[in-house]
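Possible regression after last week's pipeline update?

I re-ran a chain I had predicted before the update to compare outputs. Posting the input and the new output here so someone can diff against the archived version. Not blocking, just want to make sure nothing changed silently.
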Amino acid sequence: MPTVPTAKEMASNLASLSNLLCKEELINPKSKNSLDAACGKLRKLGQVQSYRYTIDSVAPIKFVPIGSKKLKQIAPHVYIDVAINPPTKDDLPPFSQLVTVIEVWDVLKNDLQLRWHLDLANRSDEGHYQAGPLFHLQAGGHQPKGNRKDDLKVSIPRWEMPPKELILACEMILANFYPDKWNKIKRQQRWLELIQFAQSLCYPMYFQRVQNSLERQQSVLEALWATEWGTTGLSQKT
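New output (post-update):
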């Protein structure tokens, strides 16, 4: 079973993430405000284990600009909508909602270059899942309150991918865009505590399902497919 943190525990760890990213000069002050606001709302919920938190697309976490070979400056942004609930069965992940979005912007032109989102598969009111893995990585997608004309026209493929909440998404950004900073902090005790906290929430059921499929000589992709793994306990809708 995954370790399901209380809202207060989640607030504490996100606050540590906020302070660390700010200390290392990886995010701007407005982004710290967005994170701190989410922490404040979670803290008020106390010891509950069913809760939801968001970093809104209109106030995402904006990482500091870096140089690019083809563009003068780029900057990754991240925003998230996640609902956490203790699973009702041993093989279920502890999420009823998960949309983690990473964007890369051309800073000088204020122009979106890339968008990737790590999602829990959509499910209709009738209980039918969209085609694809239950947790998947997908390019493009619609930005909330954005112009539909700017959306990519192709929504597949959806790649199987373990769930990643905010801490693990930030780790991926640091490793890819800020490798010197990542190498500096990746073995620091507090950083390792944050990563272990997030991994304990996101990874156990996913990798247990992978291991079970290998032992049964089953296709891993089939085992991770939404219609195979999804249950009535997961409530995200289209």
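Follow-up from reviewer: compared with the archived run. The mean pLDDT is 89. Marking as no regression found.
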